[in-house]
Amino acid sequence: MAAIELAGVTRRYDAAGGPVVALDAVSLSVEEGAFVAVMGPSGSGKSTLLNVVGLLDAPDEGRILVGDEDVTDTDVGERTRIRKETVGFVFQDFHLIPTLSAAENVAVPTIFDADPKRDRAADLLGRVGLGDRLGHTPNELSGGQKQRVAIARSLINRPSIVLADEPTGNLDRDTGERILDTLTGVTDRGVSVVAVTHDPAVAAYADRTVELEDGAIA
Ligand code: ADP
Ligand code: MG
User: Fold this and answer.
1) Domain boundaries, the chain
2) Which ligand is nearest to the CA of 44?
3) Whole-structure pTM over 0.85, yes or no?
């Protein structure tokens, strides 16, 4: 089954300089446990695609299915709920809170819940190889360790899909490979990963590479 599916998705922007078709009838199916790399030149629609897949943005045309549920016409509140249950984000530059420990950062998406997931945060850090760094703050961690904290955080609500923006962007090659191993470990548990990247190493790890050109799949 597909974790997420886009069918004929078009997203237009009404920019001051004239209308822009950021996504042009894109159809994409991300299977459960698949690792999909999205590549393409600057301005080709990668960020827009990630936002639409992550239910942060809605298409002007086309449909979006999460599992077998059509979520195209859901209102913002409902989309937010589905996003929280379904999608984990790994942002560029980690977006960790500097005053919180690694474990607290991983639990952040649940702190307003009735039952914050502190134990699960520690388990997830163990799973990404940081079981001995639970109390470290971000400035006490290397770039690769910070990225693994961000990956652990993306998994806290048991998403079916993890979206990563340039997950190896600012990391040296060896560190980048450890991140890719970590993401592959995520897919081994049935979670899908979609990574926007310029890095051919990411594409080499991916099951499939989607090449965007002017908003369309090339
Ligand atoms: P990429 O991430 O591949 O660099 P984007 O998805 O950010 O590409 O952008 C795709 C196209 O949509 C570009 O032509 C960009 O100029 C345009 N675009 C993106 N965001 C906006 C916006 N908020 N308003 C108007 N145009 C936008
Ligand atoms: Mg972008």
Assistant:
1) 2-212
2) 1
3) yes
